[in-house]
Design a protein that fits this description.
This protein is an alpha/beta fold and 339 residues long. The chain has helices at 15-24, 38-47, 57-61, 78-87, 102-115, 129-139, 165-181, 289-301, 311-329, and strands at 4-9, 28-34, 52-54, 68-71, 91-95, 119-122, 146-156, 187-193, 203-209, 215-221, 223-235, 239-243, 251-260, 272-280, 335-336. 32% of the residues lie in helices and 29% in strands.
Length: 339
């Protein structure tokens, strides 16, 4: 089959990574890069000689020779650009979060369906080898009943001028959680504080509740002296620790748990029996997550696979974050996640 002809919108922080992977993929052809910043355009020309560069993204979106666009522009621009791309018949992969409001995200999902085009959200962590290995454990039923999901994503900077730490960092871990658990979130409670920018929270704690007894907790922070990217998942059969900053052994699987004793002599004392077994660090492949995601996107465009982070998935992530934002403004009161 001929390669999928791709244009990249935005050549700032993430755009160069997208363009590089498109250029390296044998099933895609990088044909255009759009960015209004002359310095970024110059960098794009230097990195990809022969690829068309334009200052006006609208010109690229109207180019009939382009099959798909990858959008790496600020979140507040996503809705308008995605809708325009879909109107021009383009398949779209857009950087997270899908939109800055649930209403806009729902419009984008509906537009993609009406245009019969692929709308996929760039939740890159879903394509890391560690997350894919965790998904294997869940799909194989090896975890048992999931008790809790605890995630920490903290570092010093980078402060975003147009949004708070929840919208910036939480989409990563919320998307991983939704992908692994496959359970809808019922309510969200969020607390946060502003220490540097009086308009935007730099630290927040989110607690998510489900229909079951499962509890999820997220800590996100731009003002921490150290960088931590760690997730702990507790379940009845196995427990997982995912540390993305580890050069090796990013994922460890613990065969441990606890249950009430059935010993009649101990029944009145409610004695708890603990099970401790082996700790396994499964071998993970070295494929770059973004390369794996692009391969998946192409397969979805060609009808060979179903998108794991489609528009509907992105909408669920935005709905949870929007509920967290409402809770934040309500002093931490639980807010329902709208379907």
């Amino acid at each position: 089959m001929p390669p999928v002809r791709v244009g990249v919108a935005g050549y700032g922080y993430w755009g160069p990574n997208l363009a590089r992977n498109v250029a390296l993929n044998s099933e895609t052809a990088l044909v255009a890069i759009a960015d209004p910043n002359p310095k970024r355009i110059a960098a794009a020309r230097a990195a990809h000689p022969g690829v068309a560069t334009v200052a006006d993204v609208h010109d690229m979106l109207a180019d009939e020779s382009i099959d798909a666009v990858l959008i790496a522009t600020p979140p507040e621009t996503h809705c308008a650009l995605v809708l325009e791309a879909l109107e021009h018949g383009k398949h779209v992969l857009v950087e997270k979060p899908l939109a800055t409001s649930r209403e806009d995200a729902a419009r984008m999902v509906q537009a993609a369906r009406a245009a019969d085009r692929v709308l996929m959200v760039d939740h890159t962590f879903l394509f890391t080898s560690a997350v894919r290995k965790m998904k294997d454990y869940f799909d194989a039923g090896e975890m048992g009943e999931v008790y809790y999901y605890d995630s920490t994503r903290i570092n010093l900077g980078i402060f975003q001028g147009s949004t708070n730490v929840i919208w910036d960092l939480a989409p990563h871990d919320i998307s991983i959680m939704l992908y692994l658990l496959g359970q809808p979130v019922k309510t969200v409670s969020a607390f946060g504080a502003r220490h540097v920018d009086e308009n935007h929270e730099n630290i927040a704690y989110l607690t998510l509740q489900f229909e079951s007894s499962l509890l999820a907790h997220f800590h996100v922070n731009w003002l921490a002296p150290t960088k931590i990217r760690r997730t702990i998942i507790g379940a009845s059969r196995k427990m997982l620790v995912y540390d993305d900053l580890q050069p090796d052994e990013k994922l460890k699987v613990y065969d441990c748990g606890a249950q009430l004793s059935t010993d009649l002599e101990e029944i009145y004392g409610r004695f708890v029996e603990y099970r401790t077994g082996d700790v396994l660090a499964p071998k993970l492949d070295k494929t770059e997550a973004l390369a794996a995601e692009l391969e998946h996107f192409v397969a979805v465009v060609r009808g060979k696979e179903r998108a794991i982070s489609d528009g509907a998935f992105g909408l669920r992530v935005v709905s949870i974050i929007e509920a967290a934002q409402r809770s934040l403004r309500a002093g931490g009161a639980p807010e329902a996640v709208l379907e």
